[in-house]
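Researcher: Good morning. I'm working through a list of sequences from a screen, and I'd like to move beyond sequence-only analysis. For each chain I'm collecting a predicted structure so we can compare shapes side by side. This is the next one on the list. No need for commentary yet; just the structure.
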Amino acid sequence: MLRKISSQGIRTMTPSKEAADDFVEYCDAYFPHTNLAKKCASWSNSGIPGSRIHGHWPGSAAHMNHVRREPRWEDFEYTYVRPKNRFAYFGNGWTNKERDAQSDMAPYLKRENDNDLRDLHERWWDL
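Model: Good morning. Structure tokens for this chain:
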């Protein structure tokens, strides 16, 4: 999110009300099936036994890492710090790497025995 904000001239980024409501509904369906829903008081339910659980991801840590790999950017509302054109952050059409004569522009090309096809598509086998 910070990379997106800083590289695309975004001033504010707010989840849409519809997305937030849907996420709360998702959480409310998930937590009753966990130990967090037991009739005890904790910071997870504002000290009120049986009240809504908050502050936790509705799933395992592995599940959260999987979901975070592909954020739903369409669920946010944006305001921009932009000059006259929304695509001005594209720059001048060249990357710094392309302008450096010493850079390797094809790091994916390796000797046959050095290739590991699992390295394609964000190390998919880690999931």
